């Protein structure tokens, strides 16, 4: 369920009447411990359930909110409050299986399972894949209460059932003692340790453990506590659980005060004068990783630097620690002497934190903008709030919407906030839209300087590495652009997002070293203990295969081109691995590659190899329209290794036959043996010859085995792969970056033009057919201009595509044929023909006067 749908109906409060609550241990709390709702609340609940007037009022209000949001983010108004269910792979638990798990007894009531099926049907109707039917609310107090009431109201408006979405609360002993409202509103709660929030609502490990144990579809952390910890979305995603919040990349980008101020400046968001005002960093550089030199320029490290910076920005000023919060690491200063006296205090309160100076805006208001974003680049500003009432730098009262500032000012604030939120995204602004390509800071044509020796280090191959002298040896992708995802999960596969010449791409690579997997102790088994299990590199295990499939799914949804640095020897085949779903995970890889809709490149890197079942799941024949396979000159690829190949195709018997044909001494001994057997040779002579033959065979066997292995190795090369057609071309390692940059630009250009053709003709026109048309247009255009560039010249094709004049006539002809066909089809149906005049009238009404006159003149020419 999208946060958009939840927030769109947050205006009505709908309390619930739970019959009972149970802790994880199964203890039943008496109903007297829970507050009794007033008669007014009971009446309100009944009216919502029975279809009273309040339901219609709520629906009217909900519709108005939906229409308002639709205008903000440019989506249909009737879809704004819908459940967005496209958040990862289909939940294998199904819509109702998670209601009874691990001894946690859930509340049941009439219509409970019917509501779950309604959510699933609703999901399917919208084309989603993961129905969110249960949510763990990892927060308490007002945040949890507001969220739960919003969900209840939305579920009632959408499904006619308040409990269509199952809500699970976390409850500390302190919450239970005061009969906290969020516990009463939940369908179920899980007791957690009390004390500071590090023991409960800010404990990432605890939240993930509860979410997995209870079997929820999603986790909502709200604000505060763990909501800004980037470890939480990564950990939940690794478990296949939806995180209702911003991705870790956005948290990292805006979590640091200095870094976020630099990003805001680069995105064109107004900022107060501060110590980094003079630092100019390109936005694309900020989003990847702010250069350390630029970051240092925005900070002050000594008292005298702080004094000089304050004199530039002007007094009064604030000395602030970048890592501070909650009033810590912040001091107001009015002159140089105060700076010298207080600078050390800021350093001491937040040890190790970078420090910066910012102008103090006296007599100002603290205004904030609430944003709602989705994974498709949509950003909605849900109005603003005034948080000026504070004590000790902590907000006490929040008023919304803002009334103290002119509407124009508030609107400008909201637009700037939306611009900043979009800037820290890493995916296209809309589904199927163009990639956010930036100017490359790392030359696309530079050679790959990192050279693998025995094995290929995946991270060094992707982002480069510093040598022993501190010199950076560049990898395939842009410097400092690689952001690894799922880092702590299934470490034998490396996944993440990078840029190639400024073009964002998804990357999957393979760890070659043996990694240790930590298996925690099972608290339900007394004799269980924590274990470390070795995981061999270059092998797909159930977790790493699932990680690969999930990365493919995510990259495809984000519209990112794909690069797979293939270096696998196959799948693990142990009984436990089969039980844990290694075959299902492999099938998911195949399916996600089959449905991949972006350019995809499979490249066997230097010192890499591709063996066994790994060939099956990433072969270009799975999706020939999208996948291209390449190999480095030293790469190896065959179903079996040479030693294994000769064990099957050149066994000992075949080797001995080969010796008998080629070795002169063995040929002579066998001839003498034949003469002795058919002549008058004595038995001792025959036995002596047989022993000589056996000795000679034994002497030659290692040599011939070595020759056979070498023969097999000659078939285990990239040149043989190209000759057999399993790869498209051999690409040298040093030139791979330049080659794939040109090839990627070519494929993106082809895709854009092919999509435009299919949009005109219709989806029934295949991608392959569109490519055949493009090929025909390109060659005809090149022949007309006298160019010698062929179809395989990537640079020439990109230059041709970047000049619309080369194919504008062909596109216009396609449109004319499409319209002509549609009008011709009208003659086949009398009812359609009768409606033609009405449709023509509507078309004329939509035209501006000049267009209308020109159109009428053209029609008159046709009619004679």
From TrEMBL:
Skewed-composition ranges (Polar residues): 20-31
Name of the molecule in the record: Acetyl-coenzyme A carboxylase1
UniProt-annotated stretches for the region Disordered: 15-66
InterPro entries with a match to the protein in the record: ACCA, AcCoA_carboxyl_beta, ATP-grasp, ATP_grasp_subdomain_1, BC-like_N, Biotin_carboxylation_dom, ClpP/crotonase-like_dom_sf, COA_CT_C
Composition bias type Basic and acidic residues, residue spans: 47-60
Cross-referenced PROSITE patterns: ATP_GRASP, BC, COA_CT_CTER
Keyword hit for GTP-binding: no
Organism of derivation: Zea mays
């Amino acid at each position: 369920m999208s946060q958009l749908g939840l927030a769109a109906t947050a205006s009505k409060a709908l309390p619930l009447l739970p019959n009972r609550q149970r802790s994880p241990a199964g203890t039943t709390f008496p109903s007297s411990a829970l507050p009794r709702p007033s008669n007014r609340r009971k009446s309100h609940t009944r009216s919502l359930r029975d279809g009273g007037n309040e339901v219609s009022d709520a629906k009217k209000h909900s519709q108005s909110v939906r229409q308002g949001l639709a205008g903000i983010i440019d989506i249909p108004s009737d879809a704004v409050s819908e459940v967005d269910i496209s958040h990862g792979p289909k939940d294998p638990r199904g819509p109702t299986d998670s209601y009874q798990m691990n001894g946690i007894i859930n509340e049941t009531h009439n219509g409970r399972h019917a509501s779950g099926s309604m959510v699933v049907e609703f999901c399917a109707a919208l084309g989603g894949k993961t129905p969110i039917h249960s949510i763990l609310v990892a927060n308490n107090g007002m945040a949890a209460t507001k969220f739960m009431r919003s969900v209840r109201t939305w579920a009632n408006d959408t499904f006619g059932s308040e409990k269509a979405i199952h809500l699970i609360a976390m409850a500390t002993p302190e919450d239970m003692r005061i009969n906290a409202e969020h516990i009463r509103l939940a369908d179920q709660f899980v007791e957690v340790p009390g004390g500071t929030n590090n023991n409960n609502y800010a404990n990432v490990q605890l939240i993930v453990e509860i979410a997995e144990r209870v079997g929820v579809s999603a986790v909502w952390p709200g604000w505060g506590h763990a909501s800004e910890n980037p470890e939480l979305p990564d950990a939940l995603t690794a478990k296949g659980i939806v995180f209702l919040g911003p991705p870790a990349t956005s948290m990292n980008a805006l979590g640091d005060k200095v870094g976020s101020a630099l990003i805001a400046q680069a995105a064109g968001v107004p900022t107060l004068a501060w110590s980094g005002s003079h630092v100019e960093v390109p936005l694309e550089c900020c989003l990847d990783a702010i250069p350390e030199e630029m970051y240092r320029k925005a900070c002050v490290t000594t008292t005298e630097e702080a004094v000089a910076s304050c004199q530039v920005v002007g007094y009064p000023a604030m000395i602030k620690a970048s890592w501070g919060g909650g009033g810590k690491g912040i001091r107001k200063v009015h002159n140089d002497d105060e700076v010298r006296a207080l600078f050390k205090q800021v350093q001491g309160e937040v040890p190790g934190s970078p420090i910066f100076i910012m102008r103090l805006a006296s007599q100002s208001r603290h205004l904030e903008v609430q944003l709602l974003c989705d994974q498709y680049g949509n950003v909605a500003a849900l109005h603003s709030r005034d948080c000026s009432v504070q004590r000790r730098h902590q907000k006490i009262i929040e008023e919304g919407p803002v009334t103290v500032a002119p509407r124009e000012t508030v609107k400008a604030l909201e637009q700037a906030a939306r611009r900043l939120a979009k800037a820290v995204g890493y995916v296209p602004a809309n589904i199927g839209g163009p990639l956010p390509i930036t100017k490359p800071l790392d030359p696309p044509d530079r050679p790959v300087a990192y050279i693998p020796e025995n094995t290929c280090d995946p991270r060094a191959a992707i982002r480069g590495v510093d040598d022993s002298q501190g010199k950076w040896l560049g990898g395939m992708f842009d410097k400092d652009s690689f952001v690894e995802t799922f880092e702590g999960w299934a470490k034998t596969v490396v996944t993440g997002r990078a840029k190639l010449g400024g073009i964002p791409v998804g990357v999957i690579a393979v760890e070659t070293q043996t990694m240790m997997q930590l298996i925690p102790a099972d608290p339900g088994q007394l004799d269980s203990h924590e274990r470390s299990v070795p995981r061999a590199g270059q092998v797909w295990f159930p977790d790493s295969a699932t990680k690969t499939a999930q990365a493919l799914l995510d990259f495809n949804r984000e519209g990112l081109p794909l690069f797979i640095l293939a270096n696998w020897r196959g799948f693990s085949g142990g009984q436990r691995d089969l039980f844990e779903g290694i075959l299902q995970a492999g099938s998911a890889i195949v399916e996600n590659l089959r449905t991949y809709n972006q350019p995809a490149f499979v490249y066997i890197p230097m010192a890499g190899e591709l063996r066994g079942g790994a060939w099956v799941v990433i072969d270009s024949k799975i999706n020939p329209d999208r996948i291209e396979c390449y190999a480095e000159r030293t790469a190896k690829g065959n179903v079996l290794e040479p030693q294994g190949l000769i064990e099957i195709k050149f066994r000992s018997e075949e080797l001995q036959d080969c010796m008998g044909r080629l070795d002169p001494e063995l040929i002579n001994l066998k001839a003498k043996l034949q003469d002795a057997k058919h002549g008058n040779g004595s038995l001792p002579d025959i036995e002596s010859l047989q022993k000589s033959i056996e000795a000679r065979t034994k002497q030659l066997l290692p040599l011939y085995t070595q020759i056979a292995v070498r023969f097999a190795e000659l078939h285990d090369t990239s040149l043989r792969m190209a000759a057999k057609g399993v790869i498209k071309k051999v690409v040298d390692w040093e030139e791979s970056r330049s080659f794939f940059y040109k090839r990627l630009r070519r494929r993106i250009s082809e895709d854009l033009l092919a999509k435009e053709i299919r949009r005109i003709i219709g989806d029934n026109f295949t991608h392959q057919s569109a490519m055949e048309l493009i090929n025909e247009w390109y060659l005809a255009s090149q022949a007309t201009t006298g160019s010698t560039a062929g179809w395989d010249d990537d640079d020439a094709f990109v230059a041709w595509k970047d000049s619309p004049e080369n194919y504008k006539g062909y596109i216009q002809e396609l449109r004319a044929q499409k319209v002509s066909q549609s009008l011709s089809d009208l003659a086949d149906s009398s009812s359609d023909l009768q409606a033609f005049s009405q449709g023509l009238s509507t078309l004329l009404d939509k035209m501006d006067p000049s267009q209308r006159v020109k159109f009428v003149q053209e029609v008159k020419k046709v009619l004679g």
